[in-house]
Design goal:
This protein is α/β, with parallel strands linked by helices. Helix 1 packs parallel to helix 2 and helix 2 runs parallel beside helix 3. It has nine helices and 13 strands. The chain has a seven-stranded mixed beta sheet with strand order 1-2-3-4-8-10-13, sandwiched between helices. It has a four-stranded mixed beta sheet with strand order 5-9-11-12. The protein binds ligand LW2Y6JES. Converts o-succinylbenzoyl-CoA (OSB-CoA) to 1,4-dihydroxy-2-naphthoyl-CoA (DHNA-CoA). It is an enzyme of class 4 (lyase). Pathway: Quinol/quinone metabolism; 1,4-dihydroxy-2-naphthoate biosynthesis; 1,4-dihydroxy-2-naphthoate from chorismate: step 6/7; Quinol/quinone metabolism; menaquinone biosynthesis.
């Protein structure tokens, strides 16, 4: 991480948020509890992801984690929902309300028109595992990453991207094994299953993720956005169609034809569209 001139974009309690050369880095920062998320964490994640989406200088986002734990030196990406904050109907924040807002974070990652790369330095467990699944790509620490699904140990079930989309990624049998048995899988095993893009020596992990982001940034922003939404579309139903079509509408807005349609309305006249029907 030393060679990258990260600048803090905003101070938070449960996460860190930095930017450098078109890349944003959002990282869990509760390493002593394996980076479990509580409502405060998810609110901060939503805020930072929203900023990354809105910032036109940012083209790719790393979702990573600080660490290791000051207690035992163990690295983690995220161990899912903080079970100490869990109430009867969800996770209880400082306002006393019970929330399930990690799914909003998942949706922001899924629908943001920028590549999101998950950086897994250690444990990726429960809702933390699901977050890695929903990211566009995942890089994992060769020495320390461990993937594990504990939802069925604590009466939770991510019935969306965390399980059904995972099954599309690793196959139905393997996805059922991951959820029904809750075993530990190494970075290499996760790579072999198809849910990790690269296994990287721990010391090089953050730099590798930044380099992957820089490679993405060298590509056409419109292509990256449309490709992401096209690949999402078949799994996201009408919402996937809506997101893809929204961007298609934006492209249509940029044409002379659209300008004529708008101007004709404002000038209270019939539109004079260019009568060319391209083959
Ligand atoms: C991650 C472990 C496998 C790591 O094991 P180990 O290395 O032996 O460490 P530990 O000694 O167990 O832990 C160290 C320290 O951290 C605390 N801790 C770890 N994980 C959590 C956690 N999730 N919550 C609270 N605290 C945690 C642990 O207590 C220790 O503290 P000490 O004070 O030092 O004793 C292992 O830790 C582990 O299995 N952790 C629990 C994993 C888990 O079950 N997570 C929850 C899964 S359910 C979930 O994530 C909800 C998903 C979700 O949010 C969701 C999904 C679908 C729809 C809606 C929602 C929604 O929004 O709720």
């Amino acid at each position: 991480m030393n060679s990258i001139a990260w600048q803090t974009a905003k101070e938070y309690d449960d996460i860190t948020y930095k930017k450098c050369n078109g890349v944003a880095r959002i990282a869990f920062n509760r390493p002593d509890v394996r980076n479990a998320f509580r409502p405060k964490t998810t609110s901060e994640l939503l805020d930072a992801f929203h900023d990354s989406q809105e910032d036109t200088s940012i083209g790719a986002v790393l979702l990573s984690a600080e660490g290791p734990s000051s207690k035992d030196g163990v690295y983690s990406f995220c161990s899912g929902g903080d079970q100490k904050a869990r109430g009867q109907q969800g996770y209880v924040g400082e306002d006393g309300y019970h929330r399930l807002n990690i799914l909003e974070v998942q949706r922001l990652i899924r629908f943001m028109p920028k590549a999101v790369i998950c950086v897994v330095p250690g444990w990726a467990v429960g809702g933390g595992h699901s977050l890695h699944v929903v990211c566009d790509m995942t890089l994992a620490s060769k020495e320390h990453a461990i993937f594990k699904q504990t939802d069925a140990d604590v009466t939770s079930f991510d019935g969306g991207y965390g399980s059904a989309y995972l099954a599309k990624m690793v196959g139905q049998k393997k996805a059922r094994e991951i959820f029904f048995l809750g075993r530990n899988y190494s970075a290499q095993e996760a790579f072999d299953m198809g849910m990790v893009n690269a296994v990287v020596p721990h010391e090089e992990l953050e730099n590798a993720a930044y380099e992957w982001a820089q490679e993405v940034l060298a590509k056409s922003p419109t292509s990256i956005k449309m490709l992401k939404f096209a690949m999402n579309l078949t799994d996201d139903g009408m919402v996937g169609q809506q997101v893809f079509a929204g961007e298609a509408t934006r492209l249509a807005y940029m044409t002379e034809e659209a300008k004529e349609g708008r101007d004709a309305f404002l000038e209270k006249r019939a539109p004079n569209f260019d009568k060319k029907w391209l083959p």
